[in-house]
Amino acid sequence: MAYEAFSAEWAKAYQERINATPNYREAARSWEWPLVLVLEADPSLGIEENRAILLDLYRGECRDARVATEDDFQRAPYVISAEAETWKQVLEGELDPLAAVMRGKLKILKGNVGALSGYLTAARELVNAARRVDTEFPRAVG
User: Fold this and answer.
1) Could you report the per-residue pLDDT of 100-121, keeping only the tens digit for each?
2) Measured distance CA(25)–CA(23) in Å, rounded
3) What is the pLDDT of residue 122?
4) Which of 15, 18, 53, 63 sees the fewest Cβ atoms within 10 Å?
5) In whole angstroms, what is the distance from residue 92 CA to residue 78 CA?
6) What are the extents of the domains in the chain?
7) In 3D, which of 32, 37, 30 has the Cα closest to residue 14?
8) Measured in whole angstroms, how far is the alpha carbon of residue 134 from the centre of its chain?
9) How would you list the strands of the sheet with 51-58, edge to edge?
């Protein structure tokens, strides 16, 4: 069953994949911060407003994954945003997440890039877990 990208159901399926990834658990054993991921609004794709999910990540476990609230944006130390096409390319393995950050396609809206650099393996494992979620991306309308 495919889940609509960045929906509540997708977030829960993503949480399950993260928690079923021993390599993530090991690589993120000292990570203790929530993360908000944003899929940017694109009316041409039928996305009228940003979609965002919160990942409550703590020491190699995803304790919760859900649609992010305004409070989550304020509290989460890291917020990463991209257009739907960029997320699609990352999740389909066509675009390396680090290259996407370097090119400004994945935007770190909040957080210290230097601190994240110590967790590149954990970040790759988060992406690998997301790739294992059957994801349906919006298509152009009209």
Assistant:
1) 988 999 999 999 888 888 899 9
2) 5
3) 95
4) 63
5) 23
6) 3-132
7) 37
8) 14
9) 61-67, 51-58, 35-39, 78-82, 107-110
Q: Which residues are CB-contacts of 111 (< 8 A; sequence separation ≥ 6)? A: 77, 78, 79, 80
Q: Compute how many other C-beta atoms are within 10 angstroms of the C-beta atom of residue 17.
A: 19
pTM of the model: 0.94
> Would you tell me how many other CB atoms lie within 10 Å of the CB of residue 138?
18
Q: What is the pLDDT of residues 41-85, one digit of tens each?
A: 998 888 889 999 999 999 999 999 999 999 999 999 999 999 999
Instruction: Report d(CA 53, CA 10) in Å as an integer.
Output: 9
One-letter amino acid at 71 equals D
> Measured in Å, how far apart are the chain's first and last C-alpha atoms?
25
The superfamily in CATH containing domain 3-132 is SCP2 sterol-binding domain (3.30.1050.10)
In degrees and rounded to multiples of 5, residue 111 shows phi and psi of 125, 165
